[in-house]
Amino acid sequence: MAATKADLLEVRHHDDHISRYHQVTYCAWRGGVTIYQNGLEIARHDDVLHTHALNLATV
Fold first, then answer.
1. 7, 58 in Cβ contact below 8 A?
2. CA dihedral 43, 46, 52, 54 (to 10 degrees)
3. Cα dihedral across residues 12, 23, 42, 30: positive or negative
4. What is the pLDDT of residues 42-55, one digit of tens each?
5. Is 21 exposed, middle or buried (0-12, 13-18, 19+ CB in 10 A)?
6. pLDDT recorded at residue 23
7. What is residue 3's predicted lDDT score, i.e. its pLDDT?
8. Average pLDDT, the chain
9. Residues facing residue 36 across a β-bridge
10. Which helix (H) or strand (E) holds 43?
11. What CA dihedral angle connects 17, 52, 1 and 30, to 10 degrees?
């Protein structure tokens, strides 16, 4: 799957916990997400209900 860049990525888990990551690349897959920073995998979640990615405007 293709990786997508995000300035802020919020991951909502099945237990309603929210994980937040800044300046990352992520790859979403059915029921989960893998998060990378500087080309290295920093997290992998397989209990994901929803992801929300934001890209901040550059001025």
1. no
2. 20
3. positive
4. 999 999 999 999 99
5. buried
6. 96
7. 85
8. 92
9. 25, 41
10. strand 40-45
11. 50
Rounded to whole angstroms, how far apart are CA atoms 59 and 45? 33
Radius of gyration of the chain (CA): 11
Q: What is the pLDDT of residue 56?
A: 83
Distance (Å, whole) CA 59 – CA 47: 36
Nearest to residue 32, comparing CAs of 14, 45, 21, 42? 45
Q: Evaluate if pTM is beyond 0.70.
A: yes
* Residues making up the chain, counted from first to last: 59
Dump the DSSP string for 7-20. Answer: EEEEEEETTS-EEE
